[in-house]
Amino acid sequence: MTETFVLRSGRFRMEREADWKRLERLLERAENSGAGSLSDDELMAMPKLYRAALSSLSVARAISLDQALVGYLESLCARAYFFVYGARGRLSKRIGQFFRTDWPLAVQRLLPDILVAVAATILSAVAAYVLVVNDPDWFLSFVPEGLAGGRTPSASREFLRETLFDDSAMRNELSVFATYLFTHNASVSILAFAVGFAFGIPSMLLMALNGCMLGAFWALFGMHDLSVEFGGWLLIHGVTELMAIALAGGAGLHVGRAIAFPGQRTRLDAAAEAGRSAARVMVGVLIMLFIAGILEGVGRQVITSTVARYSIAAGTLLLWLVYFFMPRRAEATHV
Predict the structure, then answer these.
(1) Are residues 128 and 59 in the same domain?
(2) Considering the domain boundaries, does residue 251 fall inside one?
(3) How does pLDDT run across 301-312, given as a tens digit for each residue?
């Protein structure tokens, strides 16, 4: 009878020990260096390994395997429990961690996808610019009438200039236009992420559509010798707003790419893993759009100097680049 128990214990250990040892190694790293030392794949694996170890412990107790193995599994499960289900930090600490590390690190992980979204926007903007400059009839093909707000190739230079510097006669119209523009860009950002599951293709189409509208507007004002003024009017809030849209497009593409090329994972697991970083980016996108709304609704109307507008645009660009890409380590946290 004793030999039978030993054989059962040995076979049981051989079949499952690899998962126990992996869980033990991950716990040692997390305990010694913090959860930030684990990759996204390892963090996702921890709950699965914990449940597998818990199942092994239940079986070990049920079939009376040797007490040394039962004791080892009890200790391993207790350590894993406190890691997986341990008390979280206070809300203020979690919010601080999000801004210090979680959001910028998520942006860094998605950088290749974000650069593709930026490239799609720029290339489509250039194409639309060339088309509208050579044939102004293209303008309304790229820009919805509600977004145009009277800014069409038939508009006079004086009218277009007034829209850039918010003369009192234009103030109410500009407020309506600013609200429409903010709503449009927020919708594009959220939709670009939401449709990313379709292999990222709709996300890139939305980036191209947004780029076409941008290029068409720039061509319109350029044809009236207002390119520089239009750049200042747009970029004082547009740096933040366009970056937010690019991040959303990159997030959608990241999820779509994971589904299209899951590697050794199932498509569902690949989508879930990609979705974690993408969701963090999208929370930040909403914050960026709120900031852009303030710059658009207040700063652009109060500040009418083109030089000042470009200065603020350059400053916001520098701040965002430093914030997102300054080297930093992930902070220790529970999964």
Answers:
(1) no
(2) yes
(3) 778 889 999 999
